[in-house]
Amino acid sequence: xxxxxxxxxxxxxxxxxxxxxxxxNLFKLWDHSSSKAEFFNNYSSSIKAVVGNTKVGADAKLIxxxxxxxxxxxxxxxxDKIDLDKCKQRGIKVTNTPDVLTDDVADLAxxxxxxxxxxxxxxxxxxxxxxxxxxxxxxxxxxxxxSVGIVGLGRIGSAIAKRAEAFQxxxxxxxxxxxxxxxxxxxxxxxxxxxxxxILVVACALTEETHHIVNRKVIDALGPKGxxxxxxxxAHVDEPELVSALLEGRLGGAGLDVFENEPEPPxxxxxxxxxxxVPHVGSDTGETSKAMADxxxxxxxxxxxxxxxxxxxx
Amino acid sequence: MATKETDNQQQRSSQELxxxxxxxxxxxxxxxxxxFEDDLLSHFHLLDPHDSPEPYDSxxxxxxxxxxxxxxVGTTPVTAEFLNLLPCLGLVVGTSAGLDHIxxxxxxxxxxxxxxxxxAFSEDVADCAVGLLIDVLRRISSADRFVRxxxxxxxxxxxxxxxxxxxRVGIVGLGSIGSEVxxxxxxxDCSIAYSSRKKKPSVPFPFYANVGDLASNSxVLILCCALTEETTHIVNKxxxxxxxxxxxxxxxxxxxxxxxxELVQCLLRGEIGGAGLDVFENEPNVPxxxxxxxxxxxSPHRAVxxxxxxxxxxxxxxxxxxxxxSNKPLLSVVSNE
Lengths: 314, 337
Description:
The structure holds two protein chains of two kinds. Chain A is an alpha/beta fold.
């Protein structure tokens, strides 16, 4: 198996790269960025597996350039950077990393909501800058009991709901269809969900249908006392609309882990104290990163040994 | 406020409404959002010595025989000496969660009931504790600084945080605040244990009589107990070493619960992993060594500061006073444990 050629698309996690290197003939795409044509000439027909992530996945162009590609193992649960149709056409298998990161992402969603409403980061800065000596900080907004609306009640959305319930937050949700085994209130229309909750959390997969699902109408419905938390994908939100709503006070605040154009979030947000901005760290704990990496490795090993994949998507 | 009362009103109100003394340090005030004074004035005849042109001592002694209840604002002390000036006092209404500024034994020996405000605040304080914990473990404030400092494009990797699920959380003080913390963190699949003066029979969590033992068996310590002589510096060097190098301390109680000098040293030496602190020994002064640390989250004693908390506090204050004056059971009386 040491001869099996695997291509990793961008730096993701040192441990993952090391583990891949001990098992496979690993190629790092970024090592060949100045000589891409030459690299593909020499190696494209040897590459049997691609390991991608949320930054660089496996788009149609990459897949087309690898005639013997058998499997794409994504170091992520999101699949928006993989051309799934192309993979289906070519009979290429796809795996991702569900479940192992659910808790961390849900924890971050609640952490961001607490940080925005209770102004944790602003308070921290207030103390660090020495301003406490000069006078007290003002009031924040209570989190417990606020109504939480979740867009997408999958694994992550459900985990967020479970946590928010412990804070006595009434839960409602929007998704493609009503979920059978829950008592949470369902809204067929996301604008209605936004109008009827105080904290809107985006937790769904990014697809053509959910692109910019949080648009001006939704933001307006959420309103000046409403808060948006996004731990899903930047493209779920019409970012220019979000920025102008925040700057104009039409939205109460936002906690954002993802942006349309990472790693460059809109700079107009940097001066606002009703936003919390973190650099796409939803699953970035030591424990979870390792668990995700192990899952990628296990899926690849299973595939090349002819065994069932652990977490196949297709 | 004396200026709000005309002579007519004063005559009417002093005959009809029960008298309540507002005990406050000159720089303290009852909250204005919601407007505490306005609401209280509709039920009670408020006396505030600092709002009178009359000297404090003379004002107090002139009214002493009519004062059966007082509200103490924030951490305004209620000392034994002060109680001696009020021979008819039967009730002290506290407006903070903590009671370390009130001489409880003196109240007890005089038969003066004391009510506190924990139940108005406990959700907000618990939310603050959980918010600080997630921030420390997942580096939220630090990451927010990183992004605003425009460091994301240049620095591809940001240091990893720590998973919350499965952490062993040790709560010091399982009163109304500690219980709310336990409820919340259980939903994150943390395991909960606690230490308090006495084991609580109806509580399912493991009890440790000794905070050091609790720390040895925990990854996180959350301090939610009252500050008393026994609990001063209850988190000392030994406890912190027992908690360990990955351990996190969250303090939403009082600064003096922790040996602050030792805390700073343990953080600087890497003897503990991180801390989230809403309270300090000498507020508003914070040890300057903490100001540059990324594994620490600092808060300026704001755990109760939401409009909802104040609304709840006002309702609780009015309810306790009304109960007292109509000889009904008090809502949040402090027991004599």
